[in-house]
Amino acid sequence: MRLIIPIIFCLAAATAEAADPAPFALSRMNAAVEDGQTPGLSLTLQQADGQRIDLHAGLADPREGIPVGSDTRFLSGSTGKTITALVAVQLAEAGALDLDAPVSTWLSDRDWWHDLANADALTLRMLLNHSAGVPDYLEDVDFFLAGLIRGNRGYSPDELVGFVAGDAAEGEPGAHFSYSDTDYILVGLIIETATGETFYDLARRLVVEPLGMTSTEPLQGRTFENLAAGHTRGLFGRQATARRGTLKSNLDHEWTGGGWVTTPGDLVTLYRALGDGGFFAAEGAIMRSDINAFDEAGTRGYGLGIYVRFHEDGAYRIAHGGDFGGYRSSVIHDSRSGLTLAVQGNDKAFEAPDFAFELLDALTAD
Question: 317, 303 in Cβ contact below 8 A?
Answer without folding.
Answer: no
